[in-house]
Each structure stands twice: as C-alpha cells, then as structure tokens.
Amino acid sequence: MTEEQMILQVCRVFQLRGEYRSYETITYGHINTTYKVYFFRDGEIKDYILQRVNTYVFRNPVEVMENTIAVTEYIRSKIKETGVSAKRSVLHYQKTAAGEYYTIAEDGGFWRCCRFIDDSVTFLNAESAKVMEEAGKAFGEFQKYLADYPVEKLHIAIPHFHNTVMRYETFRKSVEADVCHRAAEVKPEIDQYFRLEELATKMYKMQRRGELPLRVTHNDTKCSNILFDKDSLTHLSVIDLDTVMPGLVAFDFGDAIRSGANTGAEDERDIKKVSVDMVKYEAFTKGFVGSVRETLTQKEKESMALGALTMTVECGMRFLTDYLDGDKYFKIHYPDQNFVRARCHLALADDMIGRMDDMEEIVAKYCRD
Ligand code: GN1
Ligand code: MG
User: Where is the Aminoglycoside phosphotransferase domain positioned along the sequence (predicted)?
Assistant: First the structure.
C-alpha cells in the first residue's frame, strides 16, 4: 500500500466525507508524523490534520488521546463561558464510527485526526516580537484555563519528562554505553553539559523541596505548537497537547524562550548566530506573565529566567543523548542534526548565563506592572 492509500484509508475511518483531493506532509514536529489532507465537499475545500502518533515515544497512546480530549473539552467549555466562540480557539477531533478518537490502522500505526483551523498559520521560529507576545498570551491563557483542572485525572504521558536530574542520569548512561562510538568525537560538548549540571538541576531540586508548586502545564511550548490567524497574527489555539502533565510554570515559560527567542535556528550550525533575542524575550514575558502573574508565587516569578536556562540545557542534552544513542527519538533530516542541535543549545545556554540578571529583571518588571 502506498502512503497515500494508507492516508486515504485512515481518513475514511475518521468518516471524512467528500472527494479526496491531495495530501501534504508537515515536517515541523520532531516526534509524530503529520499530514494535511484536502477534501472537496459542498462546493469547497475542507482540510484536516492527520497524525500518526509516535508510539516509541508515547508508550500508551490511548492515554495520550484521553488527556488530549479531556483538556481540549475543558478549555472549550472555559472559552464558551466567556461568551466567545471557541470555533478557532480549540481543535476539533474527529471520531471513528465506533466513537473513538483514534484508530489503529493496517500499518499498525496509531492515528488521530482533527479539522484544520481555517486561515491559521504556525511558525518554527517566532518571526517577530508581535508573534512572541501573542505566543506568551497563548501559553499564559492556556495555563489559566487549566488552573483548576483536576490534575489527578491526567495520565502521565511520559514519566519524568522534565525531571532534569533523571535526564542527566540517562545522558550519563548513554555516554558510558556509547553504542554508536560517537562519544569521543563529541567529548568537548559532553563535558560542557556536565559542567552545566548543577545549574540546570537547581530548579528541579527546588520543586522536590516543595519550593515551587506543580501545576497543569503544556511542557512543549514551542512557537510551532501555537496556531495564529494568518492575517492579524493573533493567537488562536495551543496545539500538541501530548505532554500536558503536572509541571512547573517555568517549564512552559522556559521552553518557549529556548525555542522562540533564539536568534538562530534550533539546529544552527554557525553558533555565532546563536543568542537570546532580548526583544523577543521581553515580548514573550509581557504576554505570558501578563496573563498569569496574579496566580504566581514569588518564588515562581523568580524561577522564570532560570526556567529558560534549564529548558535549554535539558533539551540540548536530550538531543546529545539521542545522538549518542543513534538518533532513535527525535526525527532528523541530516546525519549529525542532533549533535548540531545540542551544540547550538550550549551556545544559547552560555548566552543566557551572561544575560541572567537582565532576564530576571524583565520578568520582575512585568510582575510589577
Ligand atoms: C519535541 O513534538 P515536538 O516536535 O513539538 C519534544 C520536545 C522538545 C522538542 C524540541 C514528546 O517536540 O520535548 O522540546 O521536540 N517532544 C517530546 O524541538 O519529546
Ligand atoms: Mg510534540
């Protein structure tokens, strides 16, 4: 069966009606495989997003879907309470004839499907400060909508996801096992990650001591996980709810800065191009902190900038771990991409360390306003 036949078969399981036109592959995500499919119905094009969930990463995809639907519906009802239409602010997942939000296809794949939100766009890198401020609002509001969500009802999609201490343990094991014989050639980078260990595990240890509260967080707050209106660039919906779990608010703040405020690409080879864009940093802070500041404790406010550094080191170290393991986790588009990503994150972390005082001051400013 060709890829296209497979896709069409899955579309039919999700009861998509009309005349199938075409599909395209969306290459933004590093984990799941995503397609956009076009149908023609009632005189117009209807488009949908079809995803094959990565079951190597998500060992229990049924639970991931339960979380996703529960959170989606919770947010939908919160938005409706405000009297605003939720049509373009939350995803609408398709059901199979059996009433399920997923199907296991002939290829053994775990598939899900949702409507494409009309006139929406997403960005790999926040293209402007305006987009970053909107991104901040999107994740801040997401946090607010879920503030009273019953945490105990959430499945833990990936245990220890942002447990930086555990991530270091895994990294250490991969360095020792060195299954692909790559450790020698990347020794300087390995050493640098170990030098950052104390600083990068500080936040997790604060949480363990009970100094920072667990909240319902998104945990993967890349700019590409937000849909924006293509004309006004205002935020519409937060997407990719696979990792919604209890977490620290600084994880969500921090990962957005790691991904959205880097002056270079996530896999920038020329590390001279890598630094924190402080205009974008401030724009995101304004949007995010502006939405959540009333709910934050003093310690949480103080942990935001450290969250950016923590997420940068942790994510970079995960890329390096995967490089050492033989690129099993993150999708790569060229052979040493995980290594390049890891080296880029070291440069970004280094720049953040130099700017920590300014980063903290900017958060403090928006906490006061
Ligand atoms: C992955 O699925 P995607 O591409 O949004 C990863 C995140 C990383 C990110 C780095 C489940 O996110 O944790 O921060 O890549 N997701 C998972 O770009 O591991
Ligand atoms: Mg994801």
Answer: 37-261
